[in-house]
Amino acid sequence: MDFDYAHYMLSGGKVKKEHVGVNSASKEAYTKQLAEIFNMNRSRILAFKNKPPPSVERVAESPSPIQQSRTVKKRRYISQSPERTLDAPDILDDFYLNLLDWGSITGVSWSPDGRHLAVALNNSHVQLWDSQSSRLLRTLRGHRLRVGSLDWNGHILTTGGMDCMIINNDVCVRSHVVGTYKGHNQEICGLKWSASGQQLASGGNDNLSNMVASGSQVCSLLWNRHERELLSSHGFTDNQLTGWKYPSMMKISELFCHTSRVLHMVQSPDGYTVATAAADEMLRLWNVLGNPEEAKPVPKRKLEPVFDLVQIR
């Protein structure tokens, strides 16, 4: 569209007709020249022309309104109820104290003489502490992933980790790794030496307890001090305690009471009562390891076979 010509026709063209009598020779010459310039002989205002050639320099496109608008961050949902509620009986009502904290400890175990405490960490290390002086004696390294299971056999500390490895550590020598075993395909969840010190039981997340396949997740293990028996605690699917006869590994009992996985077990000092703690936030006491009135002599512990121990499935 020729806008200059259109403006002339809408304004200047009419002026010439209304003032013909007063135009001088110079005025008429100017009008004629102006008409030639604006192509007055055309009868149309609109005219079709070829598409103009593209510009050499590309003009950057202006950003769209969508691009210009800033992304609005979705408002975070904040739950109005706690994720989990735990009991804290007899906690001191004293705001000067700071009794709560997070930590990287994944397991603890006292030495048989009660003088040393082994502390397993999430970074795959195991620390050995002197309980009397509260001093760190040494750090044991050997695992590649976190260590969650610990048990003592004299001066031998056996550790099990997420790397599926079981390591015997002699805490009395500088090169502490004296034996390694791999009998599980997933993380080691429980380790326990027999009272004689000649058998080691291990349980893993692969639903195996060496020396038996249990069919459910093995969380912890205990040897019966008075009978040739082994007690295992489990998670999915039944959350039960299972008793086994050793060495036949025949199932002799199953106890169902917890509603979530049985995470921890510990024997009473006399060896007859077992305390269990589960993810259902319950502690339960069980009399499953014999009768105190029928006590039998405990065989003397022998430490020499530790280095030749072989795992049995």
| Beta strand % | 25-35%
Enumerate the spans where pLDDT stays under 50 for 5 or more consecutive residues. 14-18, 303-313
Can you count the beta strands?
19
- End-to-end CA span: 93 Å
Order of adjacent strands in the largest pleated sheet: 1-2-3-4
As a whole number of angstroms, the C-alpha radius of gyration is: 44 Å
What is the ordering of alpha helices and beta strands?
HHHHEEEEEEEEEEEEEEEEEEE
Task: Count the DSSP helices.
Answer: 4
Give the helix/strand class: mainly beta
Helix share bin: 10-25%
Query: What summary fits the major beta sheet?
Result: 4 strands, antiparallel
Shape: elongated
Mean pLDDT: 79
In short:
It holds the Pfam family ANAPC4_WD40. By secondary structure, the protein is mainly beta. It contains 4 helices and 19 strands.
Please describe what this structure looks like:
- The relative contact order is 0.08.
- The C terminus is likely disordered.
- The termini are far apart.
- Strands 1-2-3-4 form a 4-stranded antiparallel sheet, with no helix packed on it. Strands 5-6-7-8 form a 4-stranded antiparallel sheet, with no helix packed on it. The protein has a 4-stranded antiparallel sheet with strand order 9-10-11-12, with no helix packed on it.
- It is built from 4 helices and 19 strands.
- It is elongated and about 145 Å long.
- It is mainly β.
- The longest helix is centred in the N-terminal third of the chain and has 13 residues.
Record the SSE blueprint:
Layout (H helix, E strand, L loop, with lengths): L2 H8 L1 H7 L6 H13 L27 H4 L36 E6 L5 E6 L4 E5 L4 E6 L6 E7 L2 E6 L4 E5 L6 E5 L6 E6 L6 E5 L3 E3 L1 E2 L4 E6 L5 E6 L5 E6 L4 E7 L5 E6 L5 E6 L4 E5 L26
Antiparallel strand pairs: 1-2, 2-3, 3-4, 5-6, 6-7, 7-8, 9-10, 10-11, 11-12, 13-14, 14-15, 15-16, 17-18, 18-19
GO molecular function, one term: ubiquitin ligase activator activity
Organism: Anisodus tanguticus
Protein name: Anaphase-promoting complex subunit 4-like WD40 domain-containing protein
